[in-house]
């Protein structure tokens, strides 16, 4: 009887794990990389402004920060920022509420889907600022007209992204929800919204950016939005007075608020929801 030989197995060497240097570990942090980008942009700003040496055309970062600090200390900028943000939050909240109702109607009925698609095709391409002259006729010079155009700028990106997220939810997951007796609003709240949350948060971020730009543009063109006006009016007034460092200080305040909202509010919301649930990579 022939002897059966067993195959010879060679021992495998353990995988070599290369230790990352402290610099590589540091660059793996997203916050560090973004800070480097901001630092590079700030350096370019300072160098270009210093070489130009004309604050009426392009003040340096140092002059801008000085004007920003003076505006904060005097209380002018905090008041203008609050005037803008308070109106913005009102329009943003109204826009989200309307978008939620329209989208919920669209995903639960065929008529609702047709209504949303038709309104989106008609009104989404229409710039919100183009409606401001009509809004001023309808609501007068004040918060009402600004809130109307802000609402318009928020509804469509939020509704579109939410609907897109709902459509991406697998039929299997929806059937599981229906097997548990979930229909209508309950299906939307318990199945569709959690599954579509990345798209919903994306729509909220886009809606916020659109509303912020619309508000500043409206204040720049038409002035007072509430009380003594907001950041847009602050920029407009200082431009007329040739206080260009103050103009750049107002623009810097707009940028800083945008960074604060993005990294503090929306990033935190993503971390405690979609990233924590493994629906989005870090």
How would you describe this protein?
Helices cover 74% and strands 0% of the residues. It is mainly alpha-helical and 282 residues long. It has one domain (64-272): MetI-like fold (Orthogonal Bundle), CATH 1.10.3720.10. Helix 4 crosses helix 11 (231-240). The mean pLDDT is 81.
Tally the helices: 12
The helix/strand series, from N terminus to C terminus, equals HHHHHHHHHHHH
Q: What's the structural domain tally?
A: 1
Which descriptor suits the 3D outline? flat
Write the layout of secondary structure elements.
Blueprint: H1 22-27, H2 30-52, H3 61-74, H4 76-108, H5 110-123, H6 132-139, H7 143-168, H8 171-179, H9 184-195, H10 197-222, H11 231-240, H12 244-272
Helix pairs in contact: 3-12, 4-5, 4-7, 4-10, 4-11, 6-7, 7-10, 8-9, 10-11, 10-12, 11-12
What features would you highlight for this structure?
282 residues; mainly alpha; MetI-like fold; 12 helices; 74% helix; flat
Concise description?
The chain has 282 residues and is mostly helical.
